[in-house]
Design brief:
The protein is an all-alpha fold. It has one domain: MetI-like (MetI-like fold), CATH 1.10.3720. Helix 4 packs across helix 10, helix 8 crosses helix 10 and helix 10 runs antiparallel to helix 13. Belongs to the binding-protein-dependent transport system permease family. CysTW subfamily.
Length: about 290
Amino acid sequence: MATPTAGRRGIGPALPLLLPAYLWLTMAIFLPLSAMAFFSFMTDLPLSGKAWSLTVQNYAAFFSSGLYLTLLLSSLRLGLEVTLWCAVIGFPAAYVLAKVLKGRAREAIFLLVILPFWSNGLVRIFSWVMVLREGGILDTALNAVLPFRISIDLMYSYPAVIIGLVHSYVPYMVLTCYLTLQAIDDSLIEAARSLGATRLQTLRRVIVPLAMPGLIAGAVLIFVPVVGSFMEPRILGGRTGTFYGTVIEDQFVAVFNWPLGAALSFILLAVVLLILAAASPVLRRAA
């Protein structure tokens, strides 16, 4: 059995390799979070000689107004819906990539999957503006095919927000599911089929349980940022795109009330961590 002294000697040689990463995490994550946590307890930013003091009123504002809670619940619902749609679209695509396509066809489709990562997020969102607006690409294409005239205008609507967010985050689901599906031995699928299982039974009892770690990883990678998203709701949703994340952005950019924005941000972080902690036993069993 290894002694504590031997364990310390084992960590010692690795410290030079670990130090840059931990220094970067400290500088890029923990220090900004610490500063924002301090701001969340301030009455005002200490700029231009303004007087300030410590207070908990910024956190109390969340509980005193039902608007923030309503927007938070709407954002959680948005995160769940986007995650569900990403799973519905991403899992079959990942299965085709991992088990059906081979060679250059797989490489070409895989390139199309990761292509959104190569473009700016604003470019992707404004591309959807040209597609979803009245007289846009979708409207023009449908009227060119259909024998009757229709008007398609999805801009500034809840479905437009869903479409934009799913397009932005579905690659995460495809990539995580692809890794787990590729690791599944094909002989397990063949054994299930040889024992008389239908394709649906094989999918439900063999493929999905074995691919569950990828589904869970993709769901977490999608749900957490979507709950606090603000670009897609702001541009594609208009007035209907007011969510918790857009309110936080307003506090920092429009109202310049950084203490309230920081408090709302930490409340969102706490809620997401509580959801993940409550779901962790189920997630561990599924993984």
